[in-house]
């Protein structure tokens, strides 16, 4: 692999922004991706709509927004795995995600088949 860690992280951020816009209908305000050992950690900011923030004012609404958003992302998991494979040449062995209804941030963690950070050093 002849790309730098920073280049790969920027490509992942750009691809996930595009995926969010095309698959979920609107993109995040900002995305930061970090390659850490055998993981890619992605923070997406500004992904909740004003209506979702309103729903999050009580516990029932908050849980509903989290569940719906996580289900939407999980339904596109094969696309996400393909994006990571295409950019990094690494297979995703597991995927974890959660959303903060307080800050409007989503965290995505892609666990890879090998230590990508070590391969890039």
TrEMBL record:
InterPro entries: MpsC
Domain annotation Na+-translocating membrane potential-generating system MpsC: ranges: 5-113
Highest taxon in the source lineage: Bacteria
Protein name: DUF2294 domain-containing protein
Native species: Bacillus songklensis
Phylogenetic classification of the source organism: Bacteria, Bacillati, Bacillota, Bacilli, Bacillales
């Amino acid at each position: 692999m002849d790309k730098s860690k920073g280049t790969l992280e920027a490509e992942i951020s750009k691809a996930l922004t595009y995926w969010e816009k095309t698959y979920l209908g609107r993109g995040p305000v900002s995305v930061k991706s970090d390659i850490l050992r055998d993981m890619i950690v992605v923070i997406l900011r500004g992904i909740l709509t004003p209506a979702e923030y309103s729903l999050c004012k009580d516990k029932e609404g908050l849980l509903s927004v989290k569940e719906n958003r996580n289900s939407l992302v999980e339904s596109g998991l094969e696309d996400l795995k393909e994006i990571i494979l295409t950019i990094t040449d690494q297979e995703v062995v597991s995927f974890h995600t959660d959303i903060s209804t307080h800050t409007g941030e989503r965290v995505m963690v892609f666990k890879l088949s090998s230590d990508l950070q070590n391969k890039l050093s």
